[in-house]
Amino acid sequence: MSHDTISANRHRHDFSGRDSVWLFGYGSLIYKADFPFLERRAAHIHGWERRFWQGSHDHRGTPASPGRVATLIEVPGAECAGMAYRVAPQVFEHLDVREKNGYLRFTTPLDFGDAQAEGLVYIATEDNAAWLGPAPEEAIARHVAASSGPSGSNSEYVLRLAEALRKLGQADPHVFAIEHHLRALDA
Ligand code: SIN
Q: What is the mean pLDDT of the chain?
């Protein structure tokens, strides 16, 4: 699959008759809401874990030197904490461009703790051309420390995500391990 998912995403969901749609964010969408939203709530999705296994050609790296950004992998019994936004359907025109580097929209149940809803989540699966795949967390940190792109340094992406998860009162061992190695490299 091409790494440019804009047109694939435009055909994936029919929003006709909908006033709003829930979006679940687990990476930069937690801390960078550069779109209008009607409501924002902390949420979880079940059966997924965050991994820095997706290449970034357009935000935190370049096509010649991709950075590493978050995607989700399926892990039965796992929980992934993030931020959910209720948005007007037109907002996906912006989001599809922002998330164009390998991310496809999937439908997922959202768990707010006291309520449930159905929402959409952008996931980069391993069949996309920008996929980098697993590596030891220390090697991921070295890769991140050496990468940057039009949206800024790759380190900033990791550090802001770790900080946003702490603000939500959530721990993510993978994100926190990479953050720890990054701070050690910086020291
Ligand atoms: C997300 O945040 O939900 C998707 C990945 C990203 O844009 O960092």
A: 96
Tokens of 107: 């439908």
Question: Do 164 and 25 meet the contact criterion of CB atoms below 8 Å apart?
Answer: no
For the question of whether the overall pTM of this predicted structure is more than 0.70, the answer is yes
Q: Name the residue with tokens 């980098």.
A: 132
Q: 143 pLDDT exceeds 90?
A: yes
Atom number of ligand 1 nearest to Cα 28: 8
The best mutation among 35, 97, 103 to test binding of ligand 1, ranked by most ligand atoms within 8 Å of the C-beta, falls on: 103
- Taking only the tens place, the pLDDT of each residue in 73-88 is 999 999 999 999 999 9
Expressed in angstroms and rounded, the spacing between residue 79 Cα and the centre of ligand 1 is 16
Question: Residue 77: which H helix or E strand, with range?
Answer: strand 67-87
Written as six digits, the tokens of 121 are: 């989540």
